[in-house]
Specification:
- The structure is a single chain.
- The protein is mostly helical.
- The protein is about 85% helix and about 0% strand.
- It contains four helices and no strands.
- Helix 1 crosses helix 2, helix 2 crosses helix 3 and helix 3 runs antiparallel to helix 4.
- It is extended and about 70 Å long.
Amino acid sequence: MSVDKDETLQRLKAAVHYTVGRLCQKTGEDHRREFSRQVIAAIAETTFRQCDIFAKDLEAFARHAKRSTVTTEDVKLVARRSTALSIYIQNKSEELNQEQKDLKKKNTGKRKSKETEEESRE
């Protein structure tokens, strides 16, 4: 592995560890519990490894479909192993699709009102 890749990997691991630590701290405060450093490190390492597996699976799904871009359908495929994650991803996907449709309608409405405005001037 090159120095840049190794450095990037270490920075990503540090970011995951930091985020897990913050989440554990918040959860601990909410439930009056404490997480040891070893537990936080174990959760961070497990999270990092699972993300690596997800990334490799996503690349494989896109490559299998002869695409160079990962799509939401690939993400849904990865999430299928966990019912809760799958439901969450499906709901988020539907939310995003609805937001995009609403945005297109809004932009289409603006264009029509501008065209009508220009026609009324003529």
